[in-house]
Amino acid sequence: MYNVSEQLASSSKAGVETFVTMANATFAGFERLAALNLNTARSLLEDSQVYARAVLAAKDLPALAALQGTLAQPDPDAAATYSRSVYEIASETRVNLSRALELRVAELNEKLGMAFEKAAETAPAGADLALNAMRTALSAANSACDNMGKAARQAADLAEANLAAAASFAARNHKRAA
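The chain above was modelled as a monomer; its predicted structure follows.
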């Protein structure tokens, strides 16, 4: 027998589990981003200490001017590495969230399919048309979701390629300038 209350309870439980999985993935991403930012801040603080000691060790104005010219140069490699790390964290978090959502959607589709089959078995005569219309609508919605997922993956791949190209360009220009 088809027990609706059991199905609703099961669906609710699966929804909560999906929410917990997505929340954990989000917090893990934020945790990694916070660690990256703390490590970057620590590195900048250490660099500032080295620079301050070098400035204090300068004996005359020309030595100070030479230090100022070398210390004021930004490090594009470090900026590119930081940007890549942020993008990597965001991408991995997006993949984990997408995976959890895709699993939930697949499960819902399976349950809807079973519900349509049960409804078809117990439906009165003439209800086939309505059930087929609902199946067609579900199929169209699934197709639209698949297309949006593909578009999102293509956008992520394009962003990753652009980031790699920008990092490569910055590194080449930094080496030329040096």
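The mean pLDDT is 81.
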